[in-house]
Design brief:
Blueprint: H1 16-20, H2 26-39, H3 45-67, H4 81-84
């Protein structure tokens, strides 16, 4: 399956700092309450919002990084018996 590559410099991508300044939505607050009830861990709503909002972008960047061409590694020529003696 081919993945769509995106250019992080494309103006259509929202800057990450805009996510940090966004208000927590009622749905995220409900999710935080649910997490606290079910895990016993008090979670920070802004952190949960950031994690939820940016997860897909994080995964996309990792997929692109893994798919990028790797540099060719060149090995030194093997030594012959004559050279090692």
């Amino acid at each position: 399956m081919a993945t769509k590559t995106t250019d992080p410099t494309t103006p259509s991508r929202k800057p990450l700092s805009d996510y940090a300044d966004a208000k927590v939505t009622p749905l995220i607050q409900e999710y935080c309450d649910w997490l606290t009830e079910n895990t016993g861990v008090k979670v920070d709503p802004p952190s949960v919002y950031l994690g939820s909002a940016l997860r897909a972008r994080f995964q996309q960047e990792r997929r692109e990084a893994k798919a990028s061409p790797k540099p060719v590694r060149r090995r030194a020529p093997r030594k012959t018996k004559e050279q090692s003696a």
